[in-house]
Write a structure and sequence with these properties.
The protein is an alpha+beta fold. The chain contains four helices and three strands; from the N terminus they run E-H-E-H-H-E-H. One of its GO terms (molecular function) is ATP binding.
Length: 96
């Protein structure tokens, strides 16, 4: 999996999202890492209302996912994972 998260901005949370809930919770070993990558059920627990995106960002994200899905479908590939990094501005300000 390629990582496209910017290295100049600290990600306070990372999620590997597949759109499934079956066995989609980070295990204890992953949770104990310095920078864990959580999964779908963790995201739903920690962000029950989702995350707020500006309209332009949301629309660009949806277009990108749709385009990616068309390419994957053309190659008969079913596995898709979205790596989401969250930089919490309030937490970053407290850490300064």
């Amino acid at each position: 999996m390629n990582n496209l998260l910017p290295s100049v901005v600290q990600m306070h949370q990372k999620y590997d999202l597949k759109g499934s809930t079956y066995k989609r919770k980070a295990n204890k070993h992953e949770r104990n890492k310095r920078s864990p990558t959580y999964k779908d059920l963790d995201f739903l627990e920690q962000h029950p209302d989702g995350i707020l995106l500006e309209a332009d960002t949301y629309n660009a994200l949806v277009k990108t996912i749709q385009r990616d899905c068309r390419v994957l479908e053309s190659f008969k590939i079913m596995d898709y994972s979205l790596l989401v990094g969250i930089h919490n501005l309030d937490q970053a300000a407290r850490e300064r």
